[in-house]
Amino acid sequence: MSPAANTLATATSPYLRQHADNPVHWRQWSAEALDEAVRRDVPILLSIGYAACHWCHVMAHESFEDAEVAAAANADFVCIKVDREERPDLDAVYMNATVAMTGQGGWPMTCFLTPDGRPFFCGTYYPRPQFLQLLTAVAHTWRTQRDDVEQASDQVAGELRRMAAGLPGGGPEIEPALCDHAVAAILGDEDTERGGFGRAPKFPPSALLEALLRTHERTRSPVPLAAVERTGVAMARGGIYDQLAGGFARYSVDADWVVPHFEKMLYDNALLLRAYAHWARRTGDPLARRVAAETASFLINDLADGHMFTSSLDADAAGSEGSTYVWTPAQLREVLGEDDGAWAARVFAVTERGTFEHGSSVLQLPADPDDPQRFERVRGALLAERSTRVQPPRDDKVVTAWNGLAITALAEASVALDDPGLLEAAVRCATVIVDLHFVDGRLRRASLGGVVGDSAAILEDHAALATGLLTLHQLTGDGSWLATAAELVGLAQGHFADPDRPGRWFDSADDAEQLMVRPSDPLDGATPSGASLIAEALLTIGHMIDGDWAGRYGEDAAETLLAHSPLLAKAPRSAGHWLAVAEAAVRGPLQVAVATADASSPLLAAARRMAPGGTIVVGGPVDSSPLLAGRDRVGAADAAYVCRGRVCDLPVTSAKDLANALGVSG
């Protein structure tokens, strides 16, 4: 039976649509595609990537657009293309297989599977000659050594199931000493000269920064704050940060944050916005404030599609990596004139030798210039010129989890920057996401152009969106956000909790497509794990709702943190968001209920400004929310009630007394 032609033109993923014109007969992952492999009795060629991935484009141009490669692939395989951002469950299963076989992973991911989905050979990027040889060798092996292939795939499947067993049972209690241990281990890996943690390539450690800020607030130690400042400054002044338009690239290929891998991801920028806004709110640092404001503007100006936020900007423009962003001294002079061009070259560290390819340089900002007006004029002129260049394509897919992260970050930044417009943007996004991505009572993973895809939401989608909605409830007082967050958390508890291991969670739902292994990865990576995100949502909502439900949330939060405490004890750099949630938990978490009839109450504003990260802050008239039940103003004065867990202090009526109660500077 001849294979069907390429079917990706109807996909809801821009990444898949990029491959719709390939001569390779790609199809989406589906029962029909798997059935075709069974009918033809051929292995599956599975290629997993994402739209902003530079090496995915390279392999596509070299191999997937090549007629000879396509002929070999179509003849001997069923070819399936997957967007890892749309199907993170598939990505997780086969990435674990790739790492188990090769010791490393990455994208594009290239896997060869039996017709029932068991992997027997995996890798990442292959240049065309090697890939063509690989196709021939795998097809020959399938035909002539089938028993060996079946045995190898069984061994890999067994290893994946063993890995899925996860953490050993039991762990240390969640208490300040465990957090201090984790922080000490993290700081031991800090690059104190260049900022960040570990060696090149360096990824923005957003979750670690947020956790260290919370540690500083709990302990008042300057040490974790100094680490945040070193990394925050290094990234903000390096090439990983867009010095003209704001926003961060995916990672730096070097240890000095100079040359980025140029794609810009929604999730990175949402997480970094939260960290920089928190740093700005805690210290008033002008660089932190500026970077937070510019990153928020980048989200709204460059990634917004209507009111929701799209996934990424590509690393490439017209097939050339970074070409939109880099400059030579001659280009600066051409745009700005001799004097301003020479000045800009000094300010942005653009040299004749260059820091990137072909003598070009990525813009850096080693120090703030002494002429701010000139700087803004020059920056505006360069940005205008840059807008005439070929721009990187945008992946317009809207992912629920990452929009949840953006909602939280924009809402928190609205407080740090005293910018109500950011809260309004968060509310608009949440309104559309909830309306569009809830279908027949269940949450979906992604949409494109207002059309919701078929991919079911995973744990991180429910948890990140729930936390975003809980943040909105605290800042707006709108009870509908709390109700929807409770619905999301209830769905997570009902469909993702491991019934056999209290505190453990699966990443895919119990009624989702059954894969070879049900994904369950508790480690925080580029984004927080679904399990650490649901721990945050449970901890927060458990202190915002009355009744039996509150007790169930609290129990699940405690069990989740305890089940994953071994990560804080043994692998804290892979548990940054776990540490941030643990820091909130050991403080109670803190709750502040401000009794006031005035939405613009100075005491409520002070509570939001001063509260340590992870604190729950609500305000309004008595009985307007569960935290305000029976709590009223004191005489004619607004009153703040500070609680730690279920234990509450006497009310205070001044910002100074509130600061003392919270253990922070006013």
From TrEMBL:
<dbReference type="InterPro" id="IPR024705">
    <property type="entry name" value="Ssp411"/>
</dbReference>
<protein>
    <submittedName>
        <fullName>Thioredoxin domain-containing protein</fullName>
    </submittedName>
</protein>
<dbReference type="InterPro" id="IPR004879">
    <property type="entry name" value="Ssp411-like_TRX"/>
</dbReference>
<dbReference type="Pfam" id="PF03190">
    <property type="entry name" value="Thioredox_DsbH"/>
</dbReference>
<feature type="domain" description="Spermatogenesis-associated protein 20-like TRX">
    <location>
        <begin position="6"/>
        <end position="160"/>
    </location>
</feature>
<dbReference type="InterPro" id="IPR008928">
    <property type="entry name" value="6-hairpin_glycosidase_sf"/>
</dbReference>
<dbReference type="InterPro" id="IPR036249">
    <property type="entry name" value="Thioredoxin-like_sf"/>
</dbReference>
